Amino acid sequence: MKVKILTSIFLLATTVLISCSKGGGNAPGYTYTYKLTGPATSIVQVQYTPTMTDPNMTEVPDDIEYEEDVTPPWEKTVTLHKNISGAGFSASVSDGVPGATYTISILNKDGNVLKTGDFTLDSYGHGVLLLNYYRN
């Protein structure tokens, strides 16, 4: 009996919270730009948090692109719903020029750097870097 009561209370609270948050579902989200710079001599595999504006989305659907093979310079702008608290961006080179340096950044809508980092390819031409930015 306690389980049924607790389940009912949980479902009622969840419904109320979702109903309240859906009122702001049309509120503007957050815009981020992912930026990659470095020598254009290698293919760089990038992965990033893609545009997600549905407040009920809990994971990235299969039909949304979030991984690309690119050459620097490269950038991509995405919009994330206000309920999504962060953005991730990674770059990986597996057959580059040893010693080459790449920079990846996450920028806000005004072009200000929120998170940035550099990575240098090792003696085999391999390198990777992951950035995560979380809003307060």
Spatially, the strands of the biggest sheet line up as 4-1-6-7
End-to-end separation in angstroms reads 40 Å
Number of domains: 1
Largest sheet, in brief, is: 4 strands, antiparallel
Q: Which regions contain 5 or more consecutive residues with pLDDT less than 50?
A: 1-25
Give the class from helix and strand content and strand pairing. alpha+beta
Strand and helix layout:
Blueprint: H1 2-22, E1 30-37, E2 44-48, E3 67-70, E4 74-80, E5 86-93, E6 101-107, E7 113-120, E8 127-134
Antiparallel strand pairs: 1-4, 1-6, 2-3, 2-5, 5-8, 6-7
Short description:
This protein has 136 residues and is α+β, with helices and mostly antiparallel strands. The protein has a single domain, classed as Lipoxygenase-1, CATH 2.60.60.
Describe what you observe in this structure:
By secondary structure, the protein is of the alpha+beta class. It has a single domain (28-134), classed as Lipoxygenase-1 (Sandwich). Helix content is 15%, strand content 40%. The chain has one helix and eight strands. The strands form two sheets. The protein has a four-stranded antiparallel beta sheet, with no helix packed on it. Strands 3-2-5-8 form a four-stranded antiparallel beta sheet, with no helix packed on it. The longest helix has 21 residues, at 2-22. It is elongated and about 45 Å long.
